[in-house]
Amino acid sequence: MKSYKHILFDLDGTLTDPAEGITKCIAYALEAKGIHTPDLNSLKPLIGPPLKDTFMHTYGFDEKEALACVDKYRERFATQGLYENLLFDGIPKLLEGLKSKDYKVYLATSKPEIFAHKILQHFAIDSYFDFAGGSALDDSRPTKTSVIQYVLNKANLVDPQHCIMIGDRKHDLIGARETGMDAIAVLYGYGSEEELMKEKPTYLLHSVDDLIQFFDA
Prior knowledge:
It contains nine helices and eight strands. The protein has helices spanning 19-31, 51-59, 63-77, 91-100, 113-122, 144-154, 170-178, 193-197, 208-216, and strands at residues 6-9, 16-17, 86-87, 104-112, 131-135, 163-167, 182-186, 203-205. The termini are close together.
């Protein structure tokens, strides 16, 4: 294993299981467009990617319509959906272990940074992170690549060869590749093995316990 010093985590589907909140908020936004979703489980594949892209690519909205849906989504998410969320078993143990071994730990999420900070605080894991970065409410960081680059810049990480990105969707792996770092794809989140393997991750792990063992090695 390479000498990684800096560990970047995705949030949704990697640290937390946000299915209830995200699916309810997407359904809420779609309802405003006259689209009813009787089965919230049908929205689970939409967890992870940037919301604007999801509304454009999945529902055929133009950019203006998609941004309006994002605003509607956030209307519910800011007060309810934010807390309809669960921490995956083993995550505190994983983070505590990383810090005890002097790794630097960062968050790189497509979720708006202001919401990401509240979620880390809600689960009392914010103290493990050296920096937590997310997307911007003004859509100035619209891709996972732009979020990862923002975290690198903010943390003054000039050598991505010492960094590794951990995530459950292809966007995490693409972002890692485009910023010059290795990536761990995790299968306990929302990306399928087929989706993840197409992006040729450096490592593919099945569970949080696998991550703990990986960094214990």
